[in-house]
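Hey, I was hoping to borrow your eyes for a little while. I've dropped the whole record in just underneath, so have a look:

——
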Amino acid sequence: MKKAIIIFCMVIIAGCYSKKPKSTTLTGKIMPPISLLGFDSTTVFHTDSIKTGKPTLLFYFAASCPFCRAETRMLISDKQPLSDFNIVMVCVSKFSEFKKFYSKFDLQNHRSIQAGVDANDSFKNYFATTQVPYLVIYDKNKKLKCIYLGKTSPATIKKAVST
């Protein structure tokens, strides 16, 4: 029984470290319109307002997910590995949990990051997912390049737009 639990845990942990992009029929499609409720609960950010010219990362996350928190730490590190990206953090959690997450990671001080709650489940419905972390990478023309499931390094994300 003990071995079964250890093997199960190893499978779960291994599954959270994505190496290959997820196969999708959405590759090459233009970014969908997604509206996010901002930290102040009155501002709404629309993905339609993202300008072309820079690649974009849509990061679907849950505030309570440890892998999502680790991914966030990488995205906001002092080295700013993805400073040449538009980063949009799409939260699936309750608004109260999102506010704690937003404050904990001091996201208001990261100008290249937009974050909010997907109150209408637009992201979840368009990408047909409930998994987090879920990273969607768009090229500078807002066309989908690839999707990664699980914790993904900034180097992998950057490489995705260069191929």
Remarks:
- The chain has one domain: 2-162.
- The chain has a mean pLDDT of 88.
- The first strand starts at residue 35 and ends at 37.
